[in-house]
Amino acid sequence: MEFIDLKTQYTQLKSSIDARMAAVLAHGQFIMGPEIAELELKLAAYVGVKHCIGVADGTTALLIALMALGIKSGDEVITTPFTFIATGEMIALLGARPVFVDIDPATWNIDPELIEQAITPRTKAIMPVSLYGQCADLDPINEIAGRHGIPVIEDAAQSFGATYRGLRSGGVTDIGCTSFFPSKPLGCYGDGGACFTNDDTLATKMRQIRIHGQDRRYHHPLIGLNGRLDTLQAAVLLGKLDAFQDEVVARERIGARYTALLSDVVQTPQIQPGNTSVYGQYTIEVDKREAVQAHLKEAGVPTAVHYPIPLHLQPAFAHLELDPEAFPRSLAAGRRVMSLPMHPFLDEATQDEIVAAVKSAL
């Protein structure tokens, strides 16, 4: 049993993906080839924004967004401790301080009601994470940020394709950042990512930053980095793009079926009114997680934990000297969350097998 079935996806999309990759091999423009601009136009249209900037990976997308906003040493950026380390890591890499705010236990996303009290004169951005495939509650976050004159970056690495009150993830805040890591809802065959914005000035800065701060050949107005998306990875994404919305619909159907079958025995994802989820992970909460995982492994069902250790407890952030008990909801979730196999090709028979194994383990 596959946790994420990329093999079936490739089998179904082989002719499209192969043709796209073959075209790159034929023209030989492996860096910033024509597929980059084509992909950016199509992704911007899909998200419903003016600009998409293809970049090397989701982590680089966050870094470029922060750099475009001028985040620097001594600044503060508010985010969640219940996420992959890249979110806090990129803040710290620029010398800024990640300021953590606890989660809403129903959605596992940052709790907007706790954000305002964390704002100080040094707060220069808010970076909510749309965890597991559902957007954070972005309207109240945008409203708080607007009152304080603070930009918002959505970390949409797991939620590309989801909607928030009719808007696509990535297009609801000043900048949206996503990942095309192979296991993501829209994945390439290596690393890849993108930044989205409606702001012309930010778009120009992000395009320059991804190519060493360059606005034309050998002329560098900004300090930048090598943050380009490979042409071959853009080709893979273009080969998958026509089928993507069908996969989004399948993910929603499969996720909703999981919830219908499991909600009487475990805490299942709670999709908020007005939201859709792409279930980048299908995550539940269980007691005695290690024992449950062991039982499922014996039954041939793979599982994963995203994420067992909140960021404020990571050794890399020890210098922040935060109270280990400061974010109790994140701590509790870290001890209990467990993700089940989730992909658009999960058939009902296999899903029934997974559900039966979960109920047996419990």
List the helices and strands and how they pair.
Layout: H1 6-27, H2 34-47, E1 51-55, H3 58-68, E2 76-79, H4 86-93, E3 97-100, E4 123-127, H5 138-148, E5 153-155, E6 163-164, E7 167-168, E8 175-179, E9 193-197, H6 200-209, H7 231-262, E10 282-285, H8 289-298, H9 328-336, E11 337-340, H10 348-361
Parallel strand pairs: 2-3, 2-4, 5-8
Antiparallel strand pairs: 1-9, 6-7, 8-9, 10-11
Helix pairs in contact: 1-7, 2-7, 3-4, 3-6, 7-10, 8-10
Widest sheet, order of strands: 1-9-8-5
Order of helices and strands: HHEHEHEEHEEEEEHHEHHEH
Number of strands: 11
Q: Structural class, please?
A: alpha/beta
Distance between the termini: 20 Å
Shape: globular
Number of helices: 10
The largest sheet, given as strand count, sense and whether it forms a barrel, is: 4 strands, mixed
Poorly predicted ranges (pLDDT <50, ≥5 residues)? none
Name of the CATH class of the largest domain: Alpha Beta
The share of residues in extended strands comes to: 5-15%
Helix percentage range: 25-40%
User: Rounded to an integer, what's the Rg over CA atoms?
Assistant: 20 Å
